[in-house]
Amino acid sequence: MKFTSNALFAALTLALLAVLAGCASKGSGSYVVLLREPDGNLGKVLVQSAQGEQVLTEVFKGTALDGTREPFFVLQEQLQRDFGAALAARPTLPEQFLLYFEAGGSELTAQSKADLQLVLQRTRARSSPDISVIGHTDTTGPAPANQALALRRATAIATQLRQLGLQNALIAVESHGESNLLVRTPDETAEPRNRRVEITIR
């Protein structure tokens, strides 16, 4: 038996499919079901064995593990009955946020100050959050100064998160300076979207 996928289909989803495939039964045999990725994208799965081959391209379509059965729709009730335990056991996927800064310092924009509350809310929803805060700048000014500025930005956000109640969360702080631009620009270009921190919550 062989599973393959297109390049857009997440490895995590494939791993889930492998788990689900091993524990469910449809009629007289086990089967696999195509589900959407957490971001809403839908890939495809090729189920292949010496006995047959089927391609799943529609959400909630399933097929036998040996590829001998034409794809069939799996109702939500059947999905929960066969795969409920495996679906409930899926790990919570990381979430990412971008917060932006006013030029030249570590003061968040008004919108990003409001967005910080969402970061706080999503972090509190996890039992043992692990947070990464990476600071960035645009290309105005010397690269060493931007490296230091990006670190100040990341540190300032980590400090705010702790002050807002995340004292016990593990927060890693890092600076990329101007080396990892969100929007590619020439040197000495003021680009608001590059003045940011990237926050990842795991």
Question: What can you tell me about this protein's structure?
Answer:
By secondary structure, the chain is of the alpha+beta class. The chain folds into two domains: 2-88, no CATH class; 95-201, 60s Ribosomal Protein L30, Chain: A (2-Layer Sandwich), CATH 3.30.1330.60. The protein is 31% helix and 24% strand. The chain has four helices and ten strands; from the N terminus they run E-H-E-E-E-E-E-H-E-H-E-H-E-E. It has helices spanning 11-23, 76-88, 110-124, 143-163, and strands at 2-5, 31-33, 45-48, 53-56, 61-64, 72-73, 95-100, 130-136, 170-177, 196-201. Helix 1 packs across helix 2. The longest helix has 21 residues, at 143-163.
What is the end-to-end distance?
A: 33 Å
> Can you give the mean pLDDT?
86
Q: For the record, what is the CATH homologous superfamily label of the largest domain?
A: OmpA-like domain
Fraction in helix: 25-40%
Q: Which class of secondary structure composition applies to the elements?
A: alpha+beta
CATH topology-level name of the largest domain: 60s Ribosomal Protein L30, Chain: A
Largest sheet: 4 strands, mixed
* Shape, per Cα inertia axes: elongated
Query: How many discrete structural domains?
Result: 2
Q: SSE string, helix = H, strand = E?
A: EHEEEEEHEHEHEE
Brief summary:
Helix content is 31%, strand content 24%. With 202 residues, the chain is an alpha+beta fold.
Which characteristics define this entry?
single chain; 202 residues; alpha+beta; 60s Ribosomal Protein L30, Chain: A; 2 domains; four-stranded mixed sheet; three-stranded antiparallel sheet; 4 helices; 31% helix; elongated; disordered N terminus
